[in-house]
């Protein structure tokens, strides 16, 4: 039997891939419209795209980058929780809350990009991550 906590892990990975597809689907046409030639592009960085592309296009890329940051801690702590046999019950529910909050954060950032609701969602998801980290620590120490 697997730990229930692995399900929200897989969902967040899947969501990250959805966001990557959205980045590609919006960014490539915007780059063409801006006259950016991928064949001639050498050694660019994120700030170059921020200068060349409309903000609402870049919001998706920024969010994808965010999904590659703090959620890596989520994946690690969920692995610890699953390995210690404590990945069911309350820990699974907290993990689902984390995933729901991160998806909501993505939707806010990629559409209206209002900082206050984004921050509140980020804060709430960080508290969920902190709770999972505490539970992992209790399981291993």
From TrEMBL:
InterPro entries, A to Z: MAPEG-like_dom_sf, Membr-assoc_MAPEG
UniProt keyword terms in alphabetical order: Membrane, Transmembrane, Transmembrane helix
Residues spanning the membrane: 6-25, 73-99, 119-140
Pfam families: MAPEG
Keyword Membrane: yes
Domain of life: Bacteria
Keyword Transmembrane helix appears in the UniProt entry: yes
Gene3D superfamilies listed in its UniProt record: Membrane associated eicosanoid/glutathione metabolism-like domain (1.20.120.550)
Subcellular location(s) per record: Membrane
GO cellular component assignments: membrane
Name the UniProt record assigns to this protein: MAPEG family protein
Species: Sphingomonas ginsenosidimutans
């Amino acid at each position: 039997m697997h730990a229930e906590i692995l399900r929200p892990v897989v969902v967040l990975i899947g969501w990250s891939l959805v966001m990557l597809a959205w980045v590609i689907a919006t960014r490539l046409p915007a780059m063409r419209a801006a006259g950016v030639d991928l064949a001639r592009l050498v050694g660019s960085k994120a700030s170059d795209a921020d200068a060349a592309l409309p903000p609402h296009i870049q919001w998706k890329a920024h969010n994808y980058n965010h999904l590659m940051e703090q959620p890596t801690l989520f994946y690690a702590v969920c692995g610890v929780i699953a390995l210690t046999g404590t990945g069911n019950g309350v820990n699974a529910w907290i993990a689902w809350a984390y995933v729901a909050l991160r998806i909501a954060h993505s939707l806010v950032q990629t559409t209206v990009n209002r900082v206050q609701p984004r921050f509140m969602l980020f804060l709430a998801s960080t508290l969920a991550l902190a709770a999972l980290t505490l539970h992992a620590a209790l399981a291993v120490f």
